[in-house]
Description:
alpha/beta, eight-stranded mixed beta sheet, two-stranded parallel sheet, 11 helices, globular, binds D-malate
Amino acid sequence: AILLAAGAHAQDFPAGKPVTIVVPFAAGGPTDRVARDLAEALRKPLGGASVIIDNVPGAGSSIGAAKVARAAPDGYTLLLNHIAMATVPTLVRNLPFKVESDFEYLGIVNDVPMTLIAKPSLSASNYAELAGWIAGNKGRINIGNAGIGSASHLCGLLFQSATKTEMTPVPYKGTAPAITDLIGGQIDLLCDQTTNTSPQIEAKKVKAYAVTTPRRLTMPLLKDLPTLDEAGLKNFQVTIWHGLYAPKGTPAPVLKKLNDALKVALKDPDFIKREEALGAVVATDGRVEPEGHRKFVAAEIAKWSPIIKAAGVYAD
Ligand code: MLT
């Protein structure tokens, strides 16, 4: 009888209760941006349910991810997180959750390039000049990040390793507050996703020097930026992706409804347009299936673990 009741309940999902997406970073940053756009696109396919955002920042996404891992597995609490799901298992010891076994995988949402940006007062007008400034200021440069294990942290660690320059990391609860301090000149450099940086680059509030993708971007605003590989940092490559997760043990019918809704949301023309305008590419096909998502994350863990170890970049 209990099983039947639980089954019937799952069939009603979402029964007039709001669905909460936990964003493990500060409001106004790249993860928050995609989560808010996704929440909007999920509303209709979830039968008009309200989808709300809960910002639970700290520890480079680990606090928010741990909260969802421990939440009731009923479909009403979800996690939107990025590449940290694949890098923290190598970067951080004693993680308070297990990426492989504490979550149900609902699908990849998008891929997002990163940009290397600097405070507006920096005089370097291209990457070569920036490299000269970095070489001449060893020991004096600080670089922002969104906490240990975050995307900006990973990119910054790889950048320091590739340029053989140790910089002072300055952690924030997300890159929204980090970019505010970059604009104010309190920090020198930041590596951050185009979903957060392109409006600031367009408004000329920050200086942009390079992109982290293997090829140049096609969007008009950023198409003239060199790739870091082109600029001399051979094989430098980071692309961020976001995925949607539910706590382990969420009933199968609820997971099916959530995955179906996600598939519809990712085909929503307004969502696609908003993402593309910020340099992101919306996920399609197999990666929007739970199994494809799980396999992709496992492949990313296998890919990043040796890179992180070879670069000697650990968080602790
Ligand atoms: C990151 O660096 O991991 C992201 O920018 C996080 C965020 O603030 O959304």
